[in-house]
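Q: I'm a student working through a structural biology exercise. My instructor gave each of us a protein and asked us to get a predicted structure, then write a short paragraph describing it. Mine is NNMT/PNMT/TEMT family protein. I'm not confident about reading structure output yet, so if you can add a plain explanation after the tokens, that would really help. Here is the sequence I was given:
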Amino acid sequence: MSPEQGLSNSDVPWDSFDSDAYFESNYRWLLREDAEIIGIVADHFRRWAPRPGRAGAIDVGTGTNLYPALTMLPFAERVTLFERSLSNRAWLTNQLREPAESWEPFWAEMRGRPEYDRIAGPLDRLASCSQVVKGNLFDLAPRGYDIGTMFFVAEGITTRTEEFERAVRVFMASLTAGAPFAAAFMRDSWGYEVGCQRFPACPINEDDVQRCLAEVARIDAITVVDSRGLREGYSGMIVATGLVAG
Ligand SMILES: C[S@@+](CC[C@H](N)C(=O)[O-])C[C@H]1O[C@@H](n2cnc3c(N)ncnc32)[C@H](O)[C@@H]1O
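A: Happy to help. First, here is the predicted structure for NNMT/PNMT/TEMT family protein. I'll explain a few features afterward.
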């Protein structure tokens, strides 16, 4: 039995998550998979988001990833970056003050769409309208936000299927009826290293995502972004887009 088996979300030392190591491995450079996901999500939000600049947006379990929040930026009046981990909240607060240059290629993937092109300084805008909020997603209040993202969280915070499913349901319930959402997942992940710590994951696939969302969403698309066997530890990424049922 590997050490991370049987871990629930509350068993994990989230406050000591090595934010710099996670950023360096995942967001220092734009990966092809993330570029593809950004295109899918930006097109979805353009189609369904409330009028530009009016929505209350939430990104759940932001970690050191600003691109989900950036995809919501044209439509948001305020953005909540909701995080359980102390180290990640501190990292986010610093990052909003002094963003890494590496976010530019992520934003470039959104360009070419009028809603995104209208924003001249996306990182300044994000810093001025966002708030880093401490919280546990399992305690999220219902119906608080008009648009939402949750990337690599539900399956990457527990080994337990029940918690994976509950995380998806609670995220969806935190959005208003009809709200557009995007959620991304690692496919078939059995856990991941961040610095010298190992974190749990629940190995799920697109059928699990479909099953979880079916009762709570009008699903627009569930797309598997193939990693072409280039990376170890998972077999691809899954991105689900849709509208909250209501
Ligand atoms: C695998 S990381 C994903 C980070 C980021 N969203 C991304 O796209 O790379 C999981 C994130 O969920 C956060 N997290 C873990 N449990 C949580 C909980 N119960 N409520 C909110 N955030 C949580 C962790 O601190 C971490 O930032």
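A: Here are two points you could use in your paragraph. The pocket of S-adenosylmethionine is lined by residues 9, 14, 17, 26, 61-63, 65, 83-85, 88, 136-138, 151-153, 156-157 (CB under 6 Å). The domain at 9-244 is CATH 3.40.50.150 (Rossmann fold). It's a good idea to check both against the output above yourself.
Q: Great, thank you!
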